[in-house]
Every structure is written in structure tokens, then in C-alpha cells.
Amino acid sequence: MSLQEYRRKRHFTATPEPSGAHRRPRGGTRRLRYVTHKHRARTLHYDFRLEWNGVLLSWAVPKGPSSDPGTRRLAVRVEDHPLDYAKFEGRIPEGEYGAGTVVIWDEGIWRPDDPNVDAALRRGELRFTLDGRRLKGAWVLVRTGLGVAGRSRQAWLLIKRREAAAPSTAGSAAATKSGAPRTPPASAPRTRRRQRRSAAPSGSA
Ligand code: MN
Questions:
Q1: In angstroms, what is the span from residue 61 Cα to ligand 1's centroid?
Q2: What is the residue range of 186's domain?
Q3: Helix (H, G, I), strand (E, B), or coil: what is residue 98?
Q4: Would the pLDDT of 38 be above 80?
Q5: 131 versus 185: which is more confidently predicted?
Q6: Do 46 and 112 lie in a common domain?
Q7: Distance 86 CA to ligand 1 centre (A)
Q8: Contact 98/190 with Cβ under 8 angstroms?
Q9: Separation of CA 111 and ligand 1 centre (Å)
Q10: 22 plus 112 within the same structural domain
Q11: Both 113 and 200 in a single domain?
Q12: Which pLDDT value is given to residue 29?
């Protein structure tokens, strides 16, 4: 993982953000950090970050994460950030990249389902458990195959998974068994959500 893009975009004489120069090696199976920043830049968004291989893998989530399993949130993969960024809060001055205020909205640790995170990222489906102050439990990041900003950035979806204790939907189990991609096409979420809603007690009215 490289911080090249991160550094290229920023002037560390002007922004209070960490340069990532003090990179501490963090060995093996230590607890992996998780943080979501609330970033009031030109547009308000949330930056979802997972520690991996000495950096923070980062996704910009315009609407922020949702703990409702029926709600998929667009998460645009952005450049890796330095580990020090996990503790960063502050004001990025006008004229600098990402100008605005950054606060920690949630933080804690995360655990990948599959220890081979690099393979999961290449596959475009990263399943994991969050133990944050706000966000907990099973989540997944799924790459959509769509590009953002002239296709230079990958569009992923950040989705809360139903916990194992909850009855699983027949549809998703069948899809997995048949060998079909576990991710429905971009047009499917609407239908799925409606099915889930109608199954909920509150949908009986
Ligand atoms: Mn941001």
C-alpha cells in the first residue's frame, strides 16, 4: 500500500493532517483499527477507514453508513490514508485538498471474515465485523463495477449484514449455492428492499 496519492494531494506545511512520515510497523495479528470521520468539506460526507498493511483503506460515503441491512450506501474508494489519520481531527484550510472540518464520528476495531484481505479487495467483496462505539456487527463492502469521477474511482456499496441469529432470506442463500454472484446487479436493491420491508411487522399497515 502506498501513500503516494495521499501525499501528492496535500501540502503538509498548510494542512494539519498527518503526512504519514512516522510510520510505525504494526506486526501480525494485532487489533486492526477502524474509524469513520465526519468531513464537512464542499459537501458533507463520511470517510470510512479500515487499517490494513500499515495504512487506512478509505472510502468516502456521501450519506454515511446505515445500520439498517436494507439500506445500501454508496462508498467511493479513495486513496489510502496514513495510520496516524485514525486520530486526526481538525480544520483543513481553504484552498487545500478537502478544505473543511474533520471530526471522528466513530472509532474502534475491525476484523475481516477472511484473513486474506487483499484477495477480498481484488474480488470486490470484503466481509468484516465492526466493533466501534456506534457501528457494530457484520458488514460488507461490495464493489459495483461502476466508476466515479470519470471512472478513476471505484464505486462500492457499504451494507450492514443481517446477524447470523436473524433468519436468513431464502433468496441470498439460494444465490450463493447456485454459484451466482452474491452481489445482485445495481438494479436489484429496490426490489430486495421492498421484500424485506413487507416481511417486517411495521409493513403490515
Ligand atoms: Mn473526506
A1: 9
A2: 170-205
A3: coil
A4: yes
A5: 131
A6: yes
A7: 13
A8: no
A9: 23
A10: yes
A11: no
A12: 54
Cα(46) to ligand 1 centroid in Å equals 6
Q: How far apart are CA 84 and CA 18, in angstroms?
A: 6
Ligand 1 centre to CA of 166 (Å) is 34
Domain count, the chain: 2
Residue 171 has phi, psi (to 5 degrees) of -60, -50
Looking at the structure, tell me whether residues 22 and 63 fall in a common domain.
yes
Alpha helices in the chain (DSSP H): 4-8, 117-123, 170-177, 189-199
The verdict on 97 and 118 lying in the same domain is yes
Task: Give residue for cell 446487479.
Answer: 185
Q: From the CA of 7, how far away is ligand 1's center (Å)? A: 14
Q: How far is the CA of 98 from the centre of ligand 1 (A)?
A: 6
> Do residues 128 and 187 both lie within one domain?
no
CA of 136 to the centre of ligand 1 (A): 22
Most confident of 66-70, 152-156, 173-177: 66-70
- 27 and 123, same domain (yes or no): yes
Question: What distance in angstroms lies between residue 185's CA and the mean position of ligand 1's atoms?
Answer: 27
Its pTM stands at 0.76
